# Entry
Amino acid sequence: MSNAYGIDIGTSNFKMCCNDKDKILNEKNIIAIANKTELLAYGDEAYEMYEKAPEHIDVSFPVKFGVIADIENMQTLLYNFFNKINEGKKVTGSDFYIAVPTDVTEVEKRAFYELVVDSKVKAKNVYVVDKPVADAIGAGLDVTKSKGIMVVNIGAETTEISVLSLGGIVISKAVKIGGNKLDDCIISSVRKAYNLVIGSKTAESLKKELGSAVQVSESFAPGFGRNVLSGLPVSVDISSDVIYQAIIDALHSIMDAIKVILERTPPELAADIIKNGVYFTGGTSQINNLEKFIKQETNLNVNIVDHPAESVVRGLMGVVSNPEFAKIAYTPTEKNFD
Ligand SMILES: Nc1ncnc2c1ncn2[C@@H]1O[C@H](COP(=O)(O)OP(=O)(O)OP(=O)(O)O)[C@@H](O)[C@H]1O
Ligand SMILES: [Mg+2]
# Structure
């Protein structure tokens, strides 16, 4: 049997795994190009250069809001990540399973498929799997038999809210809110509260350390940045209350989108969702106290999946290894994207 690779191409992170390896590759989906053409670094190494590089080095994310915006750089990244997971060994003729978002246009979906078909990875077969279905399999759910599963994937630039039943998607809606939005809100609130300009990496680490979806007792963490008035670099103790106030509106918007989908869910399926709880995946579902917040707002039970950012790619491996899930993978010629 040939190797099979699963790929989840995210806005912030690229995840890939292979059926003959235990580990998951999860690196920043970013590329650093020098003098317009020369590949300088990719993945986590390129992210080190982000917001630090001089002008002749272009450090960019080729995926925006969950869809491929820069095909050429995404091609380069795919090929380099593929070689990395194979530890430099030359591998061709493998099968590829690509997770595709649901609430996007047909052209945007097809771009994920074509990216791999046209790639130097020289695939034997390329299949796509609807991302929410892979996500649910990665969360350990038997999607082909279960009715009424709700999966909410809160990523970096999108939150995808989906209701599944018997292996198919009943409703799926993506909203353009995720972890990056929280980081942006933190940047502007910290500027207002402390006259402090911080970068996105500092905002992200403040979010992870102090961020909470419900108000908790006040704590502090250092924020490094530049004082607006003096222009000098400083370290300021940032309050968790400021971070909470910064992110809570965006979290409410996610909550409202979940409520809209619940209202549109057929009652019999809603009953199952109430029984089983909502499954949360994606990196941003790790924000502290998300469970409490959702429970307070909706009274629904909440399941936060283990290693939530890698749930989709684990699900792709589930599709490869479990014959019961075989029909879940398809090619655009077999089943038209709609
Ligand atoms: N402990 C944490 N607390 C809060 N947020 C976190 C934590 N760990 C990671 N994140 C956030 O998770 C996000 C990345 O998640 P993920 O890898 O699921 O996104 P993605 O798949 O690249 O994006 P998308 O699905 O929107 O295309 C980032 O915004 C990151 O800051
Ligand atoms: Mg994602």
